[in-house]
Fold this sequence. Notes:
Rossmann fold; globular; alpha/beta
Amino acid sequence: MRIVMPGGSGQVGMLLARAFHAAGDDVVVLSRRPVPAPWRVVAWDGVSDGPWMRELDGADVVVNLTGRSVNCRYTAANRQEILESRVRSTEAVGRAIAAAATPPRTWLQASTATIYAHSFDRANDEYTGRLGGQEGHAPPSWSFSIEVARAWEAALDAAATPGTRKVAMRSAITLSPDPEGIFDTLLGLVRHGLGGRASDGRQYLSWVHHEDFVAAVRWLIARPDLTGVVNIAAPNPLPNAHFMHALRVAAGVPVGLPAGPCLLELGAWLMRSETELMLKSRRVVPARLLDSGFRFRHPHWPEAAQALCDEWRARRRPAAA
């Protein structure tokens, strides 16, 4: 296959690019900051029409992952960049597909499981899940993430690409042992004795092992009957306290300091992040993937955490002489 990946230079994009390239697919990454890679990397700005549009003509699949990281302080400037980087890049991809003489058969568009309601009592699937803003007990400041998610998907829906199948991938956090990724950060906290529960630890955490994320993307490409919204998350989300306990067990660290509200605020400020990323209860399940026959290799967090810790250690083990 020929696969074009706008925004494919981030952590998740690199996971996919490596997997597709290793399988012999023709991979083209569109990047604002092109650097040499085993696959072809083409410059674009994520906004303007340009020569990059030719890459989509005749491609089999477009996987758009473009978007500024939300792991930052939500200043006015950062909020604008988070929103515009997602919406304007999606609009640009839509224009390129519409202009192509031979448009891609499939457009997989990144979205986020954060679009669902802050929920403790029920899991959110694609059929009956409550979208954010319908809950009433989440802090008003969290509405920004919901607005971004809705605008992101609205840009996909508005794109006039009748010959191209569109899928909005509402993904949970993708965990891999790559340096400076989410798992690397969490494991670092655990290894330094800071891997206790966040607040009361009741908030659910939805996650997906990187091998399952890649497999799910391949599944979506191969299944022309799957269109619209698809959740990409392991089928067993769990409360933060249980999540961190399982990670400590896998890491071989017996205790972890809990983080109350004040410590969370301080930590978020020091890490230039927001407490919403740690406190929103994301209880999301992948009903459409499971209904279509997809099977997760890592459906349960304790086993997935052990596999990730083992892989993390193996990557950092000195090579034998």
